[in-house]
């Protein structure tokens, strides 16, 4: 199935309809810890290192180790660009049902983001949610 495009409000509907769907937030760890969609998990596509964003070479490995390729994922970042790239990587390694969230958490010029739409936000960064905990499961 090709990568589908959605908006934050439609992503919320997808998540509400099926509790098996997961919101995968691919923003950097600092971005995620400042606030994210409620019940999201974090596997960053890029890491903030020395003031710049650098690729997370472990992204595909961690995703394969901790996520079920047959389940549905809504994938978000700040605006929708990183999440699109993440969806393309996940698609290449065999994930079956992916939605890229255009507008992401922070919004795009033509689309309000998850936060601006008043959708549920969390700062939970604990076990099973944080990248650190997911990385441990992958090793």
Describe the structure in brief.
The protein is an alpha/beta fold and 139 residues long.
List key phrases describing it.
5 helices; 139 residues; single chain; Oxidized Rhodanese, domain 1; 31% helix; alpha/beta; 5-stranded parallel β-sheet
Query: CATH H-level name... which superfamily?
Result: Rhodanese-like domain
Number of helical elements: 5
Query: How much of the residues is beta strand, in percent?
Result: 15-25%
Mean pLDDT: 96
What this model shows, in words?
This protein has 139 residues and is of the alpha/beta class. The strands form 3 sheets. Strands 1-8-7-2-4 form a 5-stranded parallel β-sheet. A two-stranded antiparallel sheet has the order 3-9. It is globular, with a radius of gyration of 14 Å. The protein starts with a strand and ends with a helix.
Q: Which helices and strands appear, and what pairs or packs with what?
A:
Layout: E1 4-6, H1 8-17, E2 22-25, H2 29-33, E3 36-37, E4 41-42, E5 46-49, E6 52-55, H3 59-66, E7 72-76, H4 81-92, E8 97-101, E9 121-122, H5 131-138
Parallel strand pairs: 1-8, 2-4, 2-7, 7-8
Antiparallel strand pairs: 3-9, 5-6
């Amino acid at each position: 199935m090709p990568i589908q495009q959605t908006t934050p409000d439609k992503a919320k509907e997808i998540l509400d309809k099926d509790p098996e769907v997961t919101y995968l937030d691919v923003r950097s760890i600092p971005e995620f810890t400042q606030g994210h969609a409620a019940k999201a998990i974090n596997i960053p596509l890029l890491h903030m290192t020395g003031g710049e964003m650098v690729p997370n070479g472990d992204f595909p490995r961690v995703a394969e180790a901790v996520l079920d390729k047959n389940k549905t994922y809504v994938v978000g970042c700040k605006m929708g660009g990183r999440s699109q790239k993440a969806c393309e990587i996940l698609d290449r390694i065999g994930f079956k049902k992916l939605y890229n969230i255009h507008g992401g958490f922070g919004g795009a010029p033509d689309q309000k983001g998850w936060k601006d739409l008043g959708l549920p936000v969390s700062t939970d960064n604990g076990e099973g949610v944080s990248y650190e905990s997911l990385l441990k499961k992958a090793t």
